[in-house]
Amino acid sequence: MKKSLGAKTIVYPAPVLIVGTYDKAGKPNAMNVAWGGLCCSNPPSVAVSIRKATYTYGNVVDRKAFTVNIPSESYVKEADYFGIVSGGKEDKFSATGLTPERSTLVDAPYIKEFPLVLECKLTHTVEIGLHTQFIGEIVDVKAEESVLGETGSVDMEKLNPFLYAPEIRMYYGIGKFLGKAHSIGKPTKIS
Q1: What percent of the chain has a predicted confidence (pLDDT) above 70?
Q2: Domains in the chain, ordered, with CATH?
Q3: CB 133 within 8 A of CB 51
Q4: Which pLDDT score, from 0 to 100, does residue 180 have?
Q5: Which distant-in-sequence residues (6+ apart) come within 8 Å of 4 by Cβ?
Q6: What is the C-alpha to C-alpha distance for residues 25 and 82, in angstroms, rounded to an integer?
Q7: Which of 181, 16, 7, 2 is closest to 115 using CA atoms?
Q8: Per-residue pLDDT averaged across 49-57, rounded?
Q9: What is the pLDDT averaged over residues 162-173?
C-alpha cells in the first residue's frame, strides 16, 4: 500500500546540472541547479528552473545564453559548492580552482574540467511561481574524448555522473548497467 506524501518537489533521480553564465561585467559564474532536464528533441532543448533571487537568473536574462555542465563524481564537492554560495559575493572559479572556458557559440562559459557540456541559447522563459524556467536550444554538446565509447556516444560508466535526491539533500552515484532502452522490454509478454 502506498502512503501519501503530499504535494512535494520529488522526482527521483534528479540530475546534477551546473549552469554556466557571464554577468554584466563578463565575470564567469556557475550555479548548481536542482530543477532541470531535457525538454524537447527537435530542436534539441534543455530546461532549467531558477529563482529570480539568484545571481544566475539575471545573467541568463541579460546574456540570453547559458551552458549546462555535467560533473563527474570526482567533482561532487565543487558541484555542491556552486549551489551553496552566490556568484554575486564570491568568485566560484577562484574558490574551486576550476577553469571557465569561453564558448565560441553562445555568450556563456563552460567548465573545462567537467566532461560533458551543453551550450545553449535561450529560446523561452516561463514564469512558474517561485522559479522561472529557462529553455535553451542546445547548439552544441562537447564531450571529453575520455568519456566516449566505441560508437562515439557518451559512455555512462566513463562519464561517471552523479544524482541528487532533493527531499533529503543527498548525492548518489549511478548504479550498474541494467539493460538497453527500447530493447530490454521487447521480449516481455504482458498478460
Answers
A1: 98
A2: 14-173 (2.30.110.10)
A3: no
A4: 84
A5: none
A6: 20
A7: 16
A8: 97
A9: 92
In eight-state DSSP terms, residue 4 is -
Give the span between the Cα atoms of 124 and 28, in whole angstroms.
22
Tell me, what amino acid is at 95? A
Average pLDDT, the chain: 94
Structure pTM?
0.93
Within its chain, how far is the Cα of 34 from the centroid?
Answer: 8
Q: Per DSSP, what are the bridge partners of residue 122? A: 136
The answer to whether residue 123 scores a pLDDT higher than 80 is yes
Radius of gyration of the chain (CA): 17
Give the count of beta carbons closer than 10 Å to the beta carbon of residue 79. 26
Dihedral of CA atoms 36, 39, 44, 50 in degrees, nearest 10, equals -30
